[in-house]
Amino acid sequence: MGMQQETTCHSLIAGKSTPGVAGRVRSVDPSTDREEGPEFSFLSEGQLCAAVQAADEAFAEYRALDPARRAAFLEDAAQKVDAQGEEIISTAMRETGLPRQRLQGELARTVNQLRLFAGVAREGDHFGVRIDPALPERGPLPRPDLRQRKVPLGPAAVFGASNFPLAFSVAGGDTASALAAGCPVVFKAHNAHPATSQLVGLALSAAVAEADLPGGVFSLVYGRGNEIGQQLVKDARIKAVGFTGSRGGGTALMATAAARPQPIPVFAEMSSINPVVVLASAIASRTMRAVLAEGFIGSVNGSGGQLCTSPGLMFVPAGSDGDAFIETVADQVSMAEGATMLTPSISTARVRGESRVSSLPGVHEVGHGVEGASANAPAPSVYSAAATTFLQTPALAEEVFGAHSLLIRYADLEELEALVDHLEGQLTATLHLDPEDSGDLEMARSILPALELKVGRVLANGWPTGVDVGEAIVHGGPFPATADGRSTSVGTLAIDRFMRPVAYQNLPEGLQPEVVRDANPWGVPRRVDGEYDLGG
Amino acid sequence: MGMQQETTCHSLIAGKSTPGVAGRVRSVDPSTDREEGPEFSFLSEGQLCAAVQAADEAFAEYRALDPARRAAFLEDAAQKVDAQGEEIISTAMRETGLPRQRLQGELARTVNQLRLFAGVAREGDHFGVRIDPALPERGPLPRPDLRQRKVPLGPAAVFGASNFPLAFSVAGGDTASALAAGCPVVFKAHNAHPATSQLVGLALSAAVAEADLPGGVFSLVYGRGNEIGQQLVKDARIKAVGFTGSRGGGTALMATAAARPQPIPVFAEMSSINPVVVLASAIASRTMRAVLAEGFIGSVNGSGGQLCTSPGLMFVPAGSDGDAFIETVADQVSMAEGATMLTPSISTARVRGESRVSSLPGVHEVGHGVEGASANAPAPSVYSAAATTFLQTPALAEEVFGAHSLLIRYADLEELEALVDHLEGQLTATLHLDPEDSGDLEMARSILPALELKVGRVLANGWPTGVDVGEAIVHGGPFPATADGRSTSVGTLAIDRFMRPVAYQNLPEGLQPEVVRDANPWGVPRRVDGEYDLGG
C-alpha cells in the first residue's frame, strides 16, 4: 500500500489505478512555490463516466449490507488510514504547508469520525424506523400495516476541501456519512493535496477489497476542478453531492444540480465570517482583555486562518473598555506570525481581500503581524470600522479567507441588534460575556433569538475554531454558510443527508426489509405505534 | 363566523378581511359550468407584502410558544374547523363537484391531522434534542458542552391543491405541519374553491385570535395563481414553501426559490402515475381477476381519478390469464360513470391527455365508461400497450390527471425489470401477488430493490388511493413525484421539513433554550451522550 513520492498519482476507479488521459500536473509545495510534489493525471469525461458507472453498479449490493458488516468495513477503513498515519502526515505537510501537530489532530479526528459513523451504522437509529401496526377494527376505515424506514439516496459525489486535507477530504465527514448511509462515493480529490489523497484513497480501496465489497463502493478521481465537478454533478446516476469550498464553487454546483432533468440535493459548506459578540463585562478588566485578545488572535491565526469557522468579525462595545481592548488586540496581532497558506492562489486571494477591505472608506487598521519566513505566508491583520460603516458597506460582510478579522464598534443594544439583523447565514456565532453579570445576560437574551436564526452553532466564552465531532454538533447554517441549513456536515446527524424515507404498506413479512420486521433482527431503535422501542 | 354565499371572499391578512384591489373573479360550479359561486377579490403585490410582513413579525413570538400552548392552539383550530363542518362540506360540494361522502371523509382527515400534529407538538420529538455533556478530562482536548435542538425555518408559503379542498388546502397537511413546527403560514387559496377556503381560513384565524397569538401566524390570500405564487416565493421573508399541484407549477416555484439571493427549500408534490405490478398468481382464477379488476377501476375512478395516488399505470403479465384479466377490466370500466371534475379546465386537460395517448402508435383501447350526467364529467378510460411501446414512448409515462389508466403487458421478469427501471420517481408503487405463491414472491423480491428506489410508498394487495395519516406513512418520492424525495407531505414526519438543527456550545444554563436544559422542563425525548432518554 506504500507509495513512492516520485510515482505519478492516478485516479482509483473501483480500486484500480487508472492513468488519466486528459493531462498531467505536478503539485506545488506552497512553502517554496516549487513544483516538487508528484505528478498526477487527469481523467477524461469518458473515464469519469466509468467511475460513476462502477458506483451505480455497486449501490444495490452495498446498500443491502447488514449494519454489522457496514460498521466493520468502516472500522477497517479507519484502521487502514491510521496505519498509514505517518506517511499521510508527512505527505500532507509538504503539500499543504500545515504543521505536523495540526495534521496529527486532523488525522485523529478523521479516524475517529470513521469509527463514529461505524457506531451510527451499527446502532441503526438512522434508519428512522416507524411502525404503525394494522388496526383492522378501526372505523370508518381499517388502518393498514405501515412500516417506514430510510433508504440511501444512491451514489454520492464528494468534493475534497483544500483546507482540511484529511477531515474534509478523501476519508472525511462527507465520505464517512455517505458510506455509513449506504451510498457509494465518487470522491473528487482536491488538486492542492493529490498525494495525500492518493494515500488515503488507497487505504479506503483496500478496505473495500478486504470487505469483499464491489469496487465501485469507492472511487477517487483527479481532474480539472471545475470541469470534472460539473460533469460529476450532471451525471444522472449521481444522487447527492457533498462539497466544502468557496461560495462561487458551491453555488455553481447548486445551479447545475437544480438544472438537471432530475434535480438532486447539494450539501455545500461555503462561506462564513463567524461573528463574535463581545459584551461589556467580558472586557471590564485588563486581565480579561488580555486573555480575550490572546484567544481571539490565536483563533484568527490558527491554521493560517484557513478554517471555515475562523472568526472574521467581532462586535466590540464602544467606550473606553472597548478602546483598551482594541489596543490589546493590536498588541497581540503584532506578535503573530503568518503561516504558509495552502496554495499560492489562496495566498494571493488573501492579500487581495485585505487590500479590498483596507481601501474602503471608514475602515481603519488595528494592527498587523509579521509575514512568515516561507513563501505564501502573509502577515495576519485586523481592521476596525464603525457599526454604521459595516451596515452600509456590503463588501465588509464578505469572507476574506485567511488570518484576517474585522472589529466593529457598537454603541448600544439597538446598534448591536441592527448588526445581527444585517448578518448573512453563518456557521457559528460566539458570545463573550460574564455569566454572573446581569447586564451581559440581558443583552445576550435580547440578541440570541435573532442570532440563532442566522447560524448553525452558538457558543459562549470560547472560540468557534475547533469543531467537536459528536452527536450534538452542528456544522451548518443558513445560506450562504451552506446550501441548505437543514443539515450538518459534521457529526452523526450528517448521515440524514444521504437518506430518504420509504413506507411499506401491507407487505407480506417475507417481502419486508429486515429492519422493519416485527422481530427487529438488527435491534434498531424504532417508533412503534407512536412510542419509542429502543431495540437493543 | 358564518358566511353568506353571496358575500365576496376577501383575503384574511393576519385575521383581518382585506378586500383585494387587483380585481375580482366569480367562481364556477363545475357541474353546471355556471359562474354561481361567490366573488373573490385578488390582492395586489403591496397587499401581499403586508401578509408576509405580518408573518415575519409573528414568527419570534410564535416559535417561542411552549409545546402545551402550541398543541392547544392546534386542537382549538381542529375544533373550530369541525364545528363549521356542515357549511364547509356543502360549500365544497358546490365548488368542487366532489360528493358529500368523500368530503366528509376529507374533513375528518383534516381535523384529525390537526390533532395529530397537536400531539407531535406536545410530545416534542421533533425538536430532535441531542446533548453531549462536557467531558473536561477528555484528551487530547476536553469536550465542550454541546446541546442541539431544531428551530423552525421561518414564515412558510403554502399553496392549496385543487383536488383536496380540505386535506391539502387551508388547514391541510402543510399548514398543520408548518404551524406545529413553529412557522407562521401565508396560505395561497386555490381559486377552484375560494369560499371553502374562506370558511376554513376564518376558523383558523379565530383560533389564532382565541389563543392570543399575533395575527400574522396565519394569513389566507387570494390572487392570480402564477403571479401571486411567484411573488410569495420570491419574498426574502418567506423561508420555506409547501405546494401540491402540477409538475409545471411545482418546477416553476422550484426554479424561483433556487434563483433567490437566499435559496429556500420547496416541498412540491407534483406528478405521479403510481404503477401497479400484477404478478401471475394474482390473476390465476376468474374470481381473482374479477375482484382485482373491480378494485382497480374503483381506484382509477375514485374522486374522478383526481387523486395524486391514482393508479395510472398497470403492468400485466402476457398470456391467457393476462388477456382474460384485461377483458374483465374492459367489462368493469364499461360500467363506470364519469364524475364531475374539479374545474372545467382540468376536465379539458383530461380529455386532451386521453386523446394524446390514444393517438400514439401501439396504444389500444381497452374500454370506456360513460360520461357523467353533469358537465365536465368525461368517461373513464383504459388503454393498453406492449412493454416495448412503453419503453420507446416517453409520452406514455406522463400523467393524465383524471380517471384514465394504461395497461402494459410484460413477457417475463426481464421485461418487468426494464419497465421498473424506466419509471420516473413516483409517490407509490403497488404489487398484486399471491403471498403463498413462491413464483410471485420470487418475482417480487427481484423487483423490489429497484422499485423502492423509485417511490415513497410500496403497497401489496391494495390500492394506492387512500393515504392513512399517521407516523409511518410516506407521501413523497423522488422527482418528479416531489421536488425532493427526502420528505413527506403527509404524516408526522412532515414536521421535519420546516425545521433545522442548531447547536449550543457551553452556553450558561440561563441562556440555553428550555428544551435542551438538563431539567428537561418540557419532558421531550432526547439523546443524551448517545443514548435515548425518553423524557415523559
UniProtKB/TrEMBL annotation, chains A, B:
Pfam families: Aldedh (PF00171). Residues 24-468 form the Aldehyde dehydrogenase domain. SUPFAM superfamilies: ALDH-like (SSF53720). InterPro entries: Ald_DH/histidinol_DH (IPR016161), Ald_DH_C (IPR016163), Ald_DH_N (IPR016162), Aldehyde_DH_dom (IPR015590), Aldehyde_DH_Superfamily (IPR050740), ALDH_KGSADH (IPR044151). One of its GO terms (molecular function) is oxidoreductase activity, acting on the aldehyde or oxo group of donors, NAD or NADP as acceptor. The keyword Oxidoreductase applies. It comes from the Bacteria. Keywords: Oxidoreductase. The keyword Oxidoreductase applies. Residues 14-38 are annotated as: Disordered. This is NADP-dependent aldehyde dehydrogenase. It comes from Nesterenkonia sandarakina. The lineage of its organism: Bacteria, Bacillati, Actinomycetota, Actinomycetes, Micrococcales.
